[in-house]
Amino acid sequence: MITKILIAEDHESANISVQKTLEELGITDIAYAYYCDDALNRIIQAVKAGSSFDLLITDLSFEPDGHKQTLANGMELITAARKEQPDLNVLVFSAENRPTVIEQLYNNYEIDGFVRKARNDARELKEAIHEIGRHRRYFPRHISQLIDKKNTYSFSDVDITIIQLLAQGTLQKDIPVYLQRKGITPSGLSSIEKKLNHMKSVLGFTKNEQLVAYCKDIGAI
What we know:
Elements: E1 4-8, H1 12-24, E2 29-33, H2 36-48, E3 55-58, H3 74-84, E4 89-94, H4 99-107, E5 113-116, H5 121-133, H6 141-150, H7 157-167, H8 175-181, H9 189-203, H10 208-217
Parallel strand pairs: 1-2, 1-3, 3-4, 4-5
Helix pairs in contact: 1-5, 2-3, 4-6, 7-10
């Protein structure tokens, strides 16, 4: 059961919003920090006092404001916090929407849940806390769908090179020259068109711009 929570969030309005959501769940033992270092110190002091936090809710991005900090972001906070309290539950509340980054949070940082700052995020926060309180990880459906879609196509190095060139503003007709200079084959315009059409067909796109935007979203480029 989740009864004691620490919020690490540098935007006051978001911090207050999360506190209000927690109070609606009947959780009143809430602490908050605007800096990662302060959040870590609170965790350390709580462990020493024998009154550890059940859950850390943290953003990923913390804007520098001249206040000297050892921990620069939420990922560093998660790593440091888990060293002090290995059993600490972690819920990331962030505007991040790239599936590759979110996958990394689950796989490498072993977070217990992720909620994106967006419409209906208060409802999702409640759902996530309920799930974590039942010792289950919370994985948002829309993120699962994005990751599933990403995994439907395995991008080759040449695919990524072509998409990066398009993202940089290179015209499709000029890409063969670049590939030839780099010794990449096949480099003909027809081969490039076939590759792009295949990628778009598999992923359900009709325009190169959609493909480029999608690859940016998933962190492929």
